[in-house]
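Listing S7. Sequence submitted for prediction.
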Amino acid sequence: MYTWHILTIGHLSRNKFWGERNDTAYRAPLATSALLLGEGQVIVTDPSLPAAGMRAALLDAAGLAPEDVTLVFSTHNHLDHHVDPLCFPNARWFLPQVDLTYLHEHWDEHKRSFPGDDWETVQRCEPAPEELAPGLKLLPLPGHTAGTSGLLFCAPEGRVLLTGDAVMTREFYKAGEPYFFGWDNDQARQTILSLRGQADVIIPGHGEAFLTRAWE
């Protein structure tokens, strides 16, 4: 069993459920980052801030430092979900195999979309196994990217599913809708539908954690 803390509550650059246009960026995006504790592991998911910001977030949430982190998991290969690869010096860094392969084979294409990314990030990453740690199951959630994957685990609150951008926010989950920017939006819609009944709590990619029963 794991306990968890939200390190950063994410937000989108634009949110159609707030009446915002998809062709306009109203703010810089921020991913939701979480801390998972259990089975002797200190795990950070989707680190969303530069090193100083992540250090402060860990201290405020759990009295920890980046040096205490043993595993880092990015749910997919977009830059806002792996902001600073040097932030956690003692951690192994994992990325879903499909998205890691994409970075190796299509780096120039990726850089055109995310010019701030760097090759050092790719060099740090290992392909994520089916079980990231005991009781921490990797769940493929394709659509936003081909390899987007979440983590399913048991916590005192029940079954918790960390989705990355397979679910952007609770509003997107309720509507069964993906973000406008994605690899295959038809696949993304199917993925969202497949999540119904799988978890008690969802930690989305760019919003607050929520109880699924309240948003289905």
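Caption to Listing S7: primary sequence and predicted structure tokens for the chain studied. The chain has a mean pLDDT of 95. The two ends are 25 Å apart (CA to CA).
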